[in-house]
């Protein structure tokens, strides 16, 4: 269950990270509200996950999910460059997340 909560926390981290772009510096009310709600949910779920998972592992996996998801959505939604080197580096992050999952 802790891994599922951690995965959900990572998804909400993606939501708030991408949401920051749409707040336009917190000047747009609706995206700002959704971004702040996503932040709160993400942190709360991380807090629940670390009750049973090692803190370092949980934090690394949480930020890794957020990083990979945010980069991929940046490429897909915002036109960020999808160079081979960037995609390779994303693959390294995914490998690190998987490695931490298997050793925890």
Q: Can you give a write-up of this model?
A:
This protein is mainly alpha-helical and 104 residues long. It has one domain (2-103). It is 84% helix and 0% strand. The chain contains 4 helices and no strands. Helix 1 packs antiparallel against helix 2 (29-49) and helix 1 packs across helix 3. The two termini are 14 Å apart.
What's the rounded overall pLDDT mean? 95
Shape label: flat
Distance between the termini: 14 Å
Number of strands: 0
Number of distinct helices: 4
Largest sheet entry: none
Order of helices and strands: HHHH
Which runs of at least 5 residues are low in confidence (pLDDT < 50)? none
How many whole angstroms does the radius of gyration measure? 14 Å
How would you summarize this macromolecular structure in one to three sentences?
This protein is mainly α and 104 residues long. 84% of the residues lie in helices and 0% in strands. α1 (2-23) runs antiparallel to α2 (29-49) and α1 (2-23) packs across α3 (55-78).
Name its key features.
mainly alpha, single chain, 84% helix, 104 residues, 4 helices
Helix and strand arrangement:
Elements (H helix, E strand, L loop, with lengths): L1 H22 L5 H21 L5 H24 L5 H20 L1
């Amino acid at each position: 269950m802790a891994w599922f909560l951690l995965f959900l926390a990572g998804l909400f981290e993606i939501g708030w990270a991408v949401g920051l772009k749409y707040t336009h510096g917190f000047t747009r009310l609706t995206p700002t509200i959704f971004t702040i709600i996503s932040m709160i949910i993400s942190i709360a779920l991380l807090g629940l996950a670390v009750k049973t998972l090692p803190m370092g592992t949980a934090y690394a996996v949480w930020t890794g999910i957020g990083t990979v998801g945010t980069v991929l959505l940046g490429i897909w939604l915002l036109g960020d460059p999808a160079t081979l080197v960037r995609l390779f580096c994303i693959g390294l992050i995914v490998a690190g997340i998987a490695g931490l999952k298997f050793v925890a």
